[in-house]
Write a structure and sequence with these properties.
Length: about 90
């Protein structure tokens, strides 16, 4: 097993990557066609098509985000925090 960043590119005929939606997902986006299994996932996705409002600002660099969770992930770039560990080698990510 290898880390995701070390994985080779997908070969033709391989299974789709994790997170890829299966054909016929019941909630398609009317703007771009991407489909989702859950209605809530579609709603979050649609926010990305929104009018550009980004209410959550990083206190360190000023970069702004539409969703608070994305700001929290971004803030780790400033703190160096790596909250997850590989079960096999202990490498943080």
């Amino acid at each position: 097993r290898v880390h995701a960043a070390e994985r080779p590119a997908a070969e033709p005929g391989q299974a789709p990557p994790p997170g890829a939606q299966p054909p016929g997902s019941p909630y398609p986006c009317s703007l771009c066609g991407e489909a989702f299994e859950e209605h809530g996932e579609l709603q979050l996705h649609r926010q990305g098509h929104g009018g550009g409002e980004r209410p959550h600002a990083c206190g360190d660099c000023g970069k702004r985000f539409r969703q608070k969770v994305n700001l929290a992930v971004h803030q780790r770039t400033h703190t160096g925090e790596r909250p997850f560990r590989c079960a096999e080698c202990g490498k943080g990510f």
